[in-house]
Amino acid sequence: MTEFITSKDGTRIAYDRVGSGPAIILIAGAMQFRAFDPTTTAMAGLLAERGYSVINFDRRGRGETASSEPMTLAQTIDDIAALIEAAGGEAAVFGSSSGGAIALAAAAAGLPITGLVLWEVPLGDEGGSDGAEFLDGLRQHIRAGHGDETIEYFMKDMPAEWLAGAKASGGWPIMVAMGPSLEPDSESLAWTQSAPRVELWKNVTQPTAVLVGEQTGPIMHPAADSMVALLPNASKRVIPAANHSWEPEVMAQKIAEFLAYG
After folding, report:
1. What is the mean pLDDT of residues 112-136?
2. What DSSP designation does 203 have?
3. Residue 262 confidence (pLDDT) above 90
4. Domain ranges of the chain
5. Topology annotation, domain 3-123+200-261
6. Residue-wise DSSP of 137-193
7. Which long-range contacts (CB under 8 A, 24 or more apart) does 100-105 make?
8. Cβ neighbours around 53 below 10 Å, total
9. Most CB contacts within 10 A, which of 63, 110, 116, 132?
10. What is the pLDDT of residues 132-182, one digit of tens each?
C-alpha cells in the first residue's frame, strides 16, 4: 500500500515499505519507478524476507510523486532525507546506476546513511567536462519541451539497440513523460566531475560496496575502480549480471550479505 511523506519544499513523495528490521532505501536510476520496475519491487520483497525494512520510492516526476519543473539534485537529496526520517532516523541506501551517483551526493551532504551499495554507476573521467556538457544539453531539451528528443538525447551514448527497443515498446510514452525527471540523474553525474573526487567524497566514510556485472559496458570497471580508489571505505565486487541488468534474487543476496558482514 502506498505511503506518503512530505519533503522540505512541500512535495509529497510516494513510497512502499515492506518488511521490518534495519532500513534500506532504494534510489532509482533513470527510467525507474515502482510501477515501471518490477525487478526492483521483487528485490525489495526478497530483502524484506531477509530481515530488512525496505523503502522503494517514486522519485519526483515519476509514478505517484508529482513535481513541478525543474527537478534538481538538491531536491532529491531533501526527499531522501525525509525518507530516512520516516525510516527511523538512519538507513542504508542502494543506488542503481545514476541513482548511485545520487546516493553518493546524499552521503556527501551528511545524511545519516549507514552503508551504501552502488550498482554500475556510469561515471565519466574524474575532472572531465562531459558530464556538465551532457547536463547542459539535457536541460535544453527539457526546457524546450522536446519529449521524444529528450529521451533520445539521454540515451545517445547507450547501445543503439537499447534505444530501438525502448521506442518499439509500449513503455516508450511512459519514458517520454519521465524526461524532466532525468535532470537530477545527469546533475549527480556532473557533480562527480565538479572537483577532485577525494575532496567531493572525503566525508563518505560509510562502508560502501561497488557492484559491477560479469558482463558490462566499457566504462563500468574504470568507474568502479575510481570509486574504490577515492572513497574512504569502499570495495568492489563483480556479481552475476549482464547488460546493466540484474536478477532480484542475486541482488538481494549481495545487498544483504554486504550489510550484514561487510
Report:
1. 98
2. T
3. no
4. 3-123+200-261
5. Rossmann fold (3.40.50)
6. HHHHHHHHT-HHHHHHHHTTTS-HHHHHHHHHSTTHHHHHHTGGGGHHHHHHHHHTT
7. 100/27, 100/29, 101/185, 101/188, 101/189, 101/191, 101/192, 102/27, 102/73, 102/76, 102/77, 102/184, 102/185, 102/188, 103/27, 104/188, 104/192, 104/201, 104/204, 104/227, 105/73, 105/77, 105/188, 105/191
8. 18
9. 116
10. 999 999 999 999 998 999 999 999 999 999 999 999 999 999 999 999 999
How confident is residue 211, by pLDDT bands cut at 50, 70 and 90? very high
Q: Answer yes or no: pTM beyond 0.85.
A: yes
Give ∠ CA 154-156-161 in degrees, rounded to 5: 115
